[in-house]
Amino acid sequence: MIERPRRWLGVLLRGLHLAAVIALGAAGMGAPIDGGRSALATLVTGAAMMALDLFGDPRHWRQASGVSMYVKLALVAWMAVDAGHRMTLFWVVVIGSAVFAHAPASFRHAELIKSR
Description:
The structure is a single chain. The chain is 75% helix and 0% strand. It is mainly α. It has one domain (3-108).
């Protein structure tokens, strides 16, 4: 029973995250949008999605995809406070996200941190 609400929460979070990423990119292109707040919204929605993923599969944090999420969240946090590097970091995160999203499952789910 809990699967359906969790799935819809994930859908909602992904939609909000996508809107925050678009706003962040638009701010970087000169739109009158606060880039720091857009980065913060991207960070918060990304962290919420990560928490939901960990709730669904606690092993996620040890896998390549989970480790990449921590790296992306750290880079987005950096974006929130460093306007001078924001667009470079934005593109690093976008390209890295595309690579991980389309990489084979054997790569994404490889266990980088071994359990005891």
